[in-house]
Please model this.
Amino acid sequence: MKKGGRLLIVDDQFGIRALLAEVFGKEGYETFQASNGKQALEIVHEHSPHIVILDMKIPGMDGLEILKRIKKTNPHIKVIMMTAYGELEMVREATDLGAISHFTKPFDIDELRKTVEQIIAEEHSVE
Model:
C-alpha cells in the first residue's frame, strides 16, 4: 500500500539525494529531487510536496532562503532541515522560519524515516 506522501529532497550532493530517494521510494513515497533552490521551487509549485528535506548549505540560494520561499508559496509544506555539525545559529533561524525538524549530517536514516512517517501520519489524521 502506498503511504501517500510526496517528498522533495533538496541537496547539492547527488549521493544523498539518490540514497534518500531510494529509501523513501521503497517506503511508498513519491519522491522528487532538486540540486538547487531554483529546481526545488519549481517542484514545490508543480507538485506541492507534503514534506521537503532540505540541506542548509546549497550553492547559490542557501537553505534558509529556499525555506522562506517554500513557506511563502505554501505555508502548509513541512520542512526538515539537514545541517552540518555546528550550524546551530542557522538551525534556530530555520526553526523560526517554520522548519519543523532538523538532522545533523551524517544523519541516522531510520530516525529520518520515522520523522517523515510521523509527519505524514499527522497530516492524514488532520484531513
About this structure: The chain has one domain: 6-120. The helical segments are 14-26, 37-47, 63-73, 88-96, 109-126.
